[in-house]
Amino acid sequence: MSHVSAPSADSPSDSPREPRDLAPQFVLPLVVRIERDAPPARTDALETAARAVLVLLGDDRARGDGEWAEAVRNWEDARIRKVVRRARGAEWRRAGTLPGITVTGRSAEVRVFPPIPLDGWPKDLAKLQVSGTELDDPEPPVAADPAQPVLWLNPELEMSAGKAMAQTGHGAQLAWWALSDADRTAWRDAGFPLSVRTAARADWPRLTTSGLPLVRDAGFTEIAPGLTVAVEGVDRVSSLPRRQQP
After folding, report:
1. Rounded Cα gap, residues 193 and 195, in angstroms
2. 166: pLDDT confidence band, cut at 50, 70 and 90?
3. Can you name the residues that pair with 27 across neighbouring β-strands?
4. In whole angstroms, what is the distance from residue 32 CA to residue 108 CA?
5. Would you tell me which of 42, 105, 129, 139 could form a disulfide with 135, CB atoms 3.0–4.6 Å apart?
6. What does residue 66 show for φ and ψ, rounded to 5 degrees?
7. What is the C-alpha separation between 215 and 176, in angstroms, rounded?
8. Cβ–Cβ < 8 Å for 12, 218
9. What ranges does the record list as Low complexity composition bias (predicted)?
10. Exposure string over 59-89, b if 16+ CB within 10 A, otherwise e
11. Which residues contact 178 (CB under 8 A, 6 or more apart)?
């Protein structure tokens, strides 16, 4: 597989003369539901955010002449910024009235919205909290399914859940870009199965030097510049079983 990377997927570049920095800038909003008495598990939230990005990219409204297609193209022509906000109660219900797609995991609910201009946030999303989103795993995650793509997090980094959700969303998008149309369809038909896990320190050098899709963060929020996610197993999607419809 050819090497695919995002030098600074969610942040402005240090080189403003790059063509994509001169283009109008858009952002992909994601909102995670976090109720006080029933927060989602961290790993499930990260996986659900990654799937939410894929669900939007694979939606007919985001392709061709679809109603979201122009916004998606404009966003992908610039920086593929993603911002994760959190909501509960009435905030979550109001967010659900805006155009978008809600993706549900085992315990997590994430709503993804079509890209918007950086300064064009809808009022009901703009007032949601963006920083300090923290979640825990009640139990250690089980081993990643070897039949599915795995988004490996850099074991040297500590990120808030919101930051990590954005990074796994970047990783999922790079995986999508690396696939043929046929493999994209196969992954979508399977329900976009994937795993998010923290890599073992001993494995991280191999993962980042094997030509895998890599996410690089510019270091403007929370962490220093550098690699955050390595995407392994994108070539496995063609063998995934088709999801059974209810």
Report:
1. 7
2. very high
3. 81, 116
4. 7
5. 42
6. -60, 160
7. 13
8. yes
9. 1-14
10. bebbeeeeebbebbeebbebbbbbbbbbbbe
11. 1, 2, 4, 213, 231, 234
Location of structure tokens 């939230």: 45
| Residue type (1 letter), 17 | R
For the chain, the C-alpha Rg in angstroms (whole number) is 17
Average pLDDT value for residue range 28-47: 97
Q: In the chain, count of helices (H) and strands (E)?
A: 8, 10
CATH architecture of 5-121+141-239: 3-Layer(aba) Sandwich (3.40)
The span from the CA of 196 to the CA of 50, in Å, is: 9
Between CA 96 and CA 83 the distance in angstroms is 17
Q: Strand locations in the chain, DSSP E?
A: 5-6, 26-33, 81-87, 101-104, 109-112, 116-117, 150-153, 195-198, 214-217, 226-232
Does pLDDT of 4 surpass 80?
A: no
More confident residue, 224 or 9: 224
Q: What is the DSSP letter of 30?
A: E
CA nearest to 150, candidates 210, 102, 213: 213
Distance CA 112, CA 215 (A): 20
Alpha helices in 17-160 (DSSP H): 19-22, 42-58, 69-77, 89-95, 123-126
Under the banding of pLDDT at 50, 70 and 90, the label for residue 23 is: confident
Whole-number Å distance between alpha carbons of 196 and 182: 24
**Euclidean distance between CA atoms 27 and 89, whole angstroms:** 24
